[in-house]
Amino acid sequence: MKNELQLSDWLPTTNKEVKIRGWEALDVILFSGDAYVDHPTFGPAVIGRLLESFGLRVAVVPQPNVNDNLQDFVKLGKPRLFFGVTGGCMDPMISNYNANKKKRDKDAYTPNGDIGFRPDYASTVYSKILKEKWPDTPVLIGGIEGSLRRVTHYDFWSDQLMPSILETSKADMLVYGMGEQPLREIVRLLEKGVPFNSINTVNQTAVLLNEADKIPKNSNWEDVEIASHETCLKDKKKYASNFKVIEQESNKLAARRIFQKIGEKTLMINPPYPTMTEAEIDASFDLPYTRLPHPKYNKRGPIPAFEMIKFSINIHRGCFGGCSFCTISAHQGKFIASRSQESILKEVDTVANMPDFKGYLSDIGGPSANMYQMKGKVQSICDKCVAPSCISPVICSNLDTSHKPLTELYQAVDKHPKVKKSFIGSGIRHDMLVPEFNKNADPKELDDYTEEVMTKHVSGRLKVAPEHTSDPVLKLMRKPSFSYFHKFKERFDKINIKKGLKLQLIPYFISNHPACEVEDMANLAAETKDMGFQLEQVQGFTPTPMTVATVIYYSGYHPYTLKKVNTPKTRKEKEEQHRFFFWYKDENKAWIKKTLNKVGRQDLLNVLLPEKTEKWRKNKPKGEAKNTFNDAVPFNQRKPEDKVRFKGKGKPKKRNKKKRR
């Protein structure tokens, strides 16, 4: 493929490349915090190809230098329509810092993992520079950084409440969520001759109105006003109460328009678009991507994030789990947009015919691997729903959770003559595979799917995310009781024996989450040890904008009940909770004994550190595992270098985790 492609097959990044295409001017110029990878998993590439499909002349300026004379911001001149700005596929603060606010030593979206190419708060930095250089040219911001920071939000890294990114960046408009639908309408209006500053009633966009501006009318929308930014600064409970409105309106099919005062300005957030249809999402994935990094990086080294997803297939968007620590639904929505099997198989064929494809697909998945084609049975019920999760505290009786289409898709993928094996690298919602929890599903379908995954799509280890063992913590997380993990493990073990497999179950857990006490972590350690686990895939809770857990972390109040919730916040509290994950390390044993004796939990102490040595590690892998999640980040924004690495004999193959845009 590389030999057949020309430089002009990528969107241009320099004046030379613009001239190769025979263009004298550009319609849109995109600025991104990531290196330019022309692949449907990378947001800037998707937006660039989408705009190109409208007949626009589009260029990309990846990782512009903000530390020199700012030549990157003027080299391509002024676009006819607008500048587009994104911080990249991850929030730049997650990319740049770990949970202890220390600088990371790798950036997964930069060649060779080099650091220093993405500024903190990249969208704001880029946008401000563009407004200074080109004050009369509109700047439109988007991507996950814009989505999660569209209203007053808590910023963990500066430890303060910040206003909408529209205020800090001085941008003219924000597109939140997945941008294909709003951009199509924005471009349509611009090409009709509508001035950019008059475009303010497009769904899934936000703008700042000046005091003298009239509120745009839209007879189809109802309006709601939330507490002002200044009120939030003074009153944490009011700030918390805002989030219930924001989350519910983000996940409603007929949402209200949200207003928030910021000083003398008014933030206006228009309702989201309906979930993309199958035809719409297929069209996005069928755009003419080269599926490769731009040739300019050939001599700089591999891009880690690309290497992870190079041979993976994204089959849907959205997640109806609504986990309180996760940002997926805030960006992609809770309703699932699934690709057709035809579109997926077409992409499989493209990947299978890449010259360096060895026959192994690293992932057939999405934000949650097993939500493909799932939706409400009766649409009118979904139309009225305001619940942030379709499966918490119980699975909605109106939700079709059939795994049959997904099982059939896996089987169709594996029929490709060049595919030796396809893996499921994305996280699987194990709770939906337990009939005692998923009561409306056909148990045989659930078993068929589980057996299909275990026998054909896993390499040694199946990773799932129960996250905790404490019911109060799990309830706040919007996760089911840990008893369902026990049920799943029973089914897992049964299939393991039945099929003569030697698979291991690897659970993910989180420490210092809101509502979690030291005793909860001791219980977690004891219960998982009793099940035969020596934990590896663990992380400390990191507050990110636009989640229930982060609102609680900052305000101390649950946004839905406005009741106080205790959260570990000091470094000492966090480290002590996290130490229970590693009860087996010598340096932690004396502290654990002291702590559990102090709270009178000798029962837990006897489980974790019995006086007599015991043989219990039936689930421990042959290869000794080294934990690397001490400073990990939220599940949907984990970086390649956060993966568990292995040493010693019995080294399992690395399996790539699907990246979410």
Automatic annotation (TrEMBL):
UniProt name for this protein: YgiQ family radical SAM protein
Coiled coil (UniProt feature): none
Species, as recorded: Winogradskyella rapida
Cofactor note: Binds 1 [4Fe-4S] cluster. The cluster is coordinated with 3 cysteines and an exchangeable S-adenosyl-L-methionine.
Domain Radical SAM core stretches: 305-585
Binding site for [4Fe-4S] cluster: 319, 323, 326
Family annotation (NCBIfam families): SAM_YgiQ (TIGR03904)
Species classification: Bacteria, Pseudomonadati, Bacteroidota, Flavobacteriia, Flavobacteriales
Keywords assigned: 4Fe-4S, Iron, Iron-sulfur, Metal-binding, S-adenosyl-L-methionine
Pfam families in the record: DUF3362 (PF11842), Radical_SAM_N (PF08497)
Annotated Basic and acidic residues bias: 615-625
Record has Acetylation as a keyword: no
Residue stretches of biased makeup (Basic residues): 646-661
UniProt region (Disordered), positions on chain: 615-661
